[in-house]
Amino acid sequence: MQAVPLELLINGLTVAAGAALLVERFTELLKQVKERANKFFLERDAEAAKLAALKNAQQQTVLIQQHLQAGHSADLAVLKAAAASDGNTADSHNSDSNNSGENDTEHTAFEQHGAITVIPIPVISGESAALNVFMRLAPLGLGIILAGIFDLHLLAMFTGQSVVDIPTLWAQNNWSGIALQTLDTLLSGLLIGGGSQPVHVLMRFLTTRRLTDSEKQALAQVIDPGEESRIASSADKAAGQNTPVAESRLAGPDIHYVGGVNPQSLEYVHRRAADPDQIVVHHTAMNSALGFNAIVDEFLQQKKWLTGYHCVIMPDGAIRPFCRWDRTGNHAKGHNDHTLGISFHGNFHQQEHDRFANNDGRYGPLTPTPAQLDAGARVIALWLNLYPQMPGQINEAVVPHRALSGANTVCPGNQFPFADLLRRSETYRTAWQASPQAQSELQAFRQKPYIYAQNLNAAVPVAGGSA
Known about the structure:
The protein is mostly helical. It has 15 helices and 5 strands.
């Protein structure tokens, strides 16, 4: 069984969670229908019982009338004889009562009992029973249908097996493959039919458990789709890990930037009054095995914000711009208007009794990788060269999130090598300032869009026309 990238599992379970939400909405609708149906059944059964009782009373009345008309005189004689017999029995009973009065008195208290409460068991009609069965099976059936529509094969996904479509298997007469595919769809549908809670529990387990060494090695080989910058070749990366700063990077920034994630969404919002004058260092505090898309979703989908960090540095050294650099991000409350935020993907805080800390390595390594630190230092050096408002002292220009006024946080974690990051950043900055080639590349970089703050008084288009 081959190792499966965690991101692939999370993506598949995310689709399953969405389908499970549809099942839950469908179940809620069924409950409303069931309540109305039960009310209808009760009213109908009550009306039917009332009509049956009325009909029965009418039939009894007819029978009594027929009986009286057929034998009225004979019945009177019988009634008189019965009355005389009852009188003799009563006299005999009175005599016996006088003789046994004392015994009856002794047992009177013993024989007196309180009323016994009898709770009638409601009679469930066949239609109500059928509706209850349908309510139980319908979500499971819908889950199986959705699993087929979304082509979900969770069993194959977790075991790392490839999925071949049914027509191909049919053409190959691969009946065992068809049976396994069908079973996989059924099991995936049953998981979806159980609602979103089981899926979320499974996702939480996968994203918080401690990864084995083999899983970490396999996850490190996953290339995040849509990355904006390609990392160095394997030989260059190895050289970069053996030396504090890769020599090939000293010649120039070599950083790709086109505005980050969906730059047009910030065209008329989050405008800066001036260019940034400080850089804030963060950690994402997430599992480092998750991809860049998970970080973006955390801000755009979960928090419902327009943007987040200005740049995210992945464990493999990939540089992932997020927010436009000429716009305010969402990363440091009270300081967003004048800062740039750079975040290193992972959780680098270790503290006992802190449930969000990475005490057991469940969020990945406790420190950034060498490639990650090197890439982050290059981004910081680029920003220091692009924006003249930055202080000359690097420890004033670059600060950890926790050092900001009003910041109630441990970010970027007590295991983050902040001094090493500053040293690397200063090395790049000074090397680029002394290199004619780097200065030429920096000058070209300054001409790119989405770098510098624009006039806040610029016209903003009005919906349906132009300003």
